Automatic annotation (TrEMBL):
Residues 11-22 have a biased composition (Basic residues). Residues 1-29 are annotated as: Disordered. One of its GO terms (cellular component) is nucleus. Residues 98-253 form the SRR1-like domain. Belongs to the SRR1 family. Pfam families: SRR1. PANTHER family: SRR1-LIKE PROTEIN (PTHR28626:SF3). InterPro entries: SRR1-like, SRR1L. This is SRR1-like domain-containing protein.
Amino acid sequence: MSDTGEQWQVARRRKGAARKSKPLQVSSNSRCCQEPLDIGKTVKRIRDTVSELRCEEFWPQWKEQLLVALGSVELSKPQEDRDPEGPTEDGQLFQHLDCVCYGLGSFSSCVSARFQLAMLLLLLDAGQIPLKDCFIYDPAFSSGERDVLMQLGLTVLTENEEGKRLVTKPTLFYLMHCGKALYNNLLWKNWSTQCLPRMIIIGNSFNGILDRTIEREFKRDYIYITQAVSVCEDRLLPCPSRLIDVFSDTAVITFPTSSLNRLPQSTWAEPPEPQYQHCPDLEIIQRETGEEP
């Protein structure tokens, strides 16, 4: 690894970490606040990190699990649309996907966030998702970081959607160590047997979230995760011990139609929007009052 052990000690993820950890220590006098971000240097550093991860032993398993998810019935091309003479390499039989990334964090100052961004780029390549079709947002991004993301070819969103994005086509959501409310909002917005099967989530294991949350509060405040956890496929991804603060408790989550159909029809009737009146620590930065979703 190119970063020192000391760097790893301070590279703690913020909100909604998979386990209790120290908050990221970034002082108001940090380098990123004293001078403009060096765009070219930061882009190179990220691409170097991509190369590092590509050589890691666990990367082929992440790629394999992504391709398994992409190969699900809901996402694969209909047989009649396939070219019998065409190539059959990984990804060639899949529909074109969008990707949405929320909550990445300040990757110019946080080592964990930089590695998570590098993994996102690897996954986009493996899933043959065009960079421009990856939509990314975090209110923590500086203007320099937004420039870096655009230089990489990603599409930077300008509005805080709070996770409330309706899918109209197969979509990969990359939500590393995000808060429970963001997952719950995403599920609410797509709470139907038509939309959920179009989604792949790479983020916190729903089973892990359930294990770490008081059951009464979980059922009261995060009803959509509560219902989804019993019918989704939640496949935990490998994480080496030295990257525990980066990729711990990460899973590939899909929503097979056959499983969703096990829920009673009343489950899908007019799902109420989450309110979170009883959540003092919401783990999500909400829109400003009056801001459009």
